[in-house]
Amino acid sequence: MTVTESYSPSSSSSSSCSTDSGPVKSSTPLISFLERIQETALNTFGATDFDPKLYIDLSLKFSLLKTEEAFDKLLRLNNGSVSVPDLNSFIEKFLNEAGSDIVYHEPVDFVQEPIGFLPKVANFEVREWALEVHSLWKNLSRRVADGVIENPELHTILPLKFPMIIPGSRFREVYYWDSYWELGTGEGSTYTAIVGPTWRGLLASKMYETAKAIVYNLISLVDEYGYVLNGARAYYSNRSQPPLLSAMVFEIYNRTGDLSLVKTALPALLKEHNFWNSGIHKVTIQDSEGCSHNLSRYYAMWNIPRPESSTIDKESASKLLNVSEKQHFYRELASTAESGWDFSTRWMRNQSDLTSLATTSIIPVDLNAYILKMELDIAFLARAIGDGSTAEHFLEASQARRKAISSIFWNGKKGQWLDYWLTNTCEEVHKWEAQGQNQNIFASNFIPIWIELFYSDDSTVEKLMGSLQSSGLLCAAGIATSLSRSGEQWDFPNGWAPIQHMIVEGLARSDLKEARSMAEDIAVRWIKTNYATYKKTGTMHEKYDVEACGKFGRGGEYVPQTGFGWSNGVVLAFLEEFGWPQDRDMDC
Ligand SMILES: OC[C@H]1O[C@H](O[C@H]2O[C@H](CO)[C@@H](O)[C@H](O)[C@H]2O)[C@H](O)[C@@H](O)[C@@H]1O
User: Fold this and answer.
1) Annotated catalytic, 342?
2) pLDDT tens digits for 385-395?
3) How far is the CA of 241 from the centre of ligand 1 (A)?
4) 431, 428, 429, 410: which is closest to 419 by C-alpha?
5) For bias kind Low complexity, which ranges apply (predicted)?
6) Between the N and C ends of the chain, which has fewer C-beta atoms within 10 Å?
7) Number of domains, the chain
8) Strands 429-431, 282-286: parallel, antiparallel or unpaired by DSSP?
């Protein structure tokens, strides 16, 4: 297989700005205390099966002061450990279990078999399975426990007002970009003619109230913080995640025509747009013809270990010698988490060295495609509520970003958009150089095809299809995220695949018949792999099956992840769009 090469845009990989100087959000005393418990638990229980997030998700039974006093009284050995019985009894007496601050919530709009559910799925076996997947929304539905609203200072979970869908497993809170695939997107409104066929996840399940609740929660985060947090925990407040809120509002509006949602959402979307297009997130770059473009990058407001992974981050940083190198690395770790791709060689100067992460020095293709979508959505939604001047302003912004995406990222020879690496992060205005484009292949290089401005251009679609076909990314479970076998979560063969939804969606909307059939082929692979895994393990909940659909593509090397709300969403969305004929079997 093709091996992704280590990437360094120029010989001067350490720019004069390699020391850390960005903004830092303050942590809370509760988080700092839970990190101490985390550290002690590692020393006491040992590293086997140790999940640091478990400890930062605990909540207090009593005040922080009282809990801290009791913790300080525990008898310690030299290495900072406590006896196992002492630590266990402290935890039992003073802390509530991780996950107890969210409780099951019966979704108000769930019915066993919604009217009009997946009308194009004719095959009985597939319908039955799709109904089981649909019923999984119930397993992932939660609301914040009453105790959190009463005493938020005892919890790291944020007191969201509305019910929520969580990814599942160790992720016991709302995640920003996961929410997009859970929500899926909608079809069948009066606007379908304008936007073309679109998608459904929760919307395929006709759970509009649940979908809206997700969006209202995210809006409340923008109201409070100015952006949507990575996830709804206090320790995620130092960064966001790929910005897909506008896409959610757009899809719900298309489906329900709910103007009051649009009116509430618009001010939040404007705030969010400003967050991504000012300060540290904004990068100005001059193209080869001397035109200046504004684009955006990931950049967390944090330069210490991520609290949910603190013990791991410290270990990863241990080979760095001085404080400023460590701070720089910690910021890169958090900024990579902001990208949603934590972690991947996509962000590393040296494939085998995590400390070479350089996310803040990269202008990412996918982020800018999402922001272009945001601009188009804002223009559309503003027009829907009669705000012509905002609509006009954002239409202009979208035209500028479209030009920027073409000038800075597009590589005609490769037929892909390529991430751009900055050579000197200190410059106010960066000068574009051909060698700044990262030539390595990632699924993100294909994401702009999601946007109508690109999928409506036949010659771009044709080039991109050829490029995708020969990329090596097409696997048994659809599109892999990367070709590198680094062992990182977002690299081959572990790369999670929900983003393939956007590529498939763009191809399916193109006027080219071949593009739609390529999209369907990818969707069929994804569905079959999920089905095979489900049949084998009896669940969609974070199960990996190396052998499922092994005879496709890479012959069993690809490890699909069929857990999580977002897998449910993408399966339902694909079934909604392409259907499943009676005579197509489900065998891999
Ligand atoms: O626990 C460490 C990291 O976990 C999250 O990242 C991963 O799970 C998320 C939830 O499914 C997903 O949105 C993300 O793309 C995954 O990489 C979290 O988002 C990170 O910030 C966190 O450090």
Assistant:
1) yes
2) 999 999 999 99
3) 9
4) 410
5) 1-21
6) N
7) 4
8) parallel
Gap between the Cα atoms of 188 and 454, Å rounded: 23
Active-site pick, 35, 173, 332, 342 = 342
- Do 262 and 326 share a domain, yes or no? no
Residues 116 and 227 in one domain: yes
- Choosing from 96, 124, 152, the residue where a domain stops is 96
Dihedral of the alpha carbons of 471, 283, 266, 184, in degrees to the nearest 10:
20
Clarify whether residues 218 and 265 are in a common domain.
yes
| Closest Cα to atom 20 of ligand 1 | 337
Rg, Å, the chain Cα set: 23
**Token pair for 477:** 């479970």
What separation in angstroms does the CA of 257 have from each of 86, 116, 217, 250, 253? 57, 18, 19, 10, 5
Co-location of 133 and 213 in the same domain: yes
**Domain contains 335:** yes
Spans of the chain below 50 pLDDT: 1-4, 9-16, 185-199, 541-547, 550-563
- Name the closest-CA residue to atom 12, ligand 1: 340
Active site residue 338: no
Provide the b/e sequence for 63-74 (b: ≥16 CB within 10 Å): ebeebbeebeee
Statement to judge: residues 267 and 180 lie in one domain: yes
H or E stretch at 51: none
Q: Give the domain extent around 66.
A: 29-50+59-96
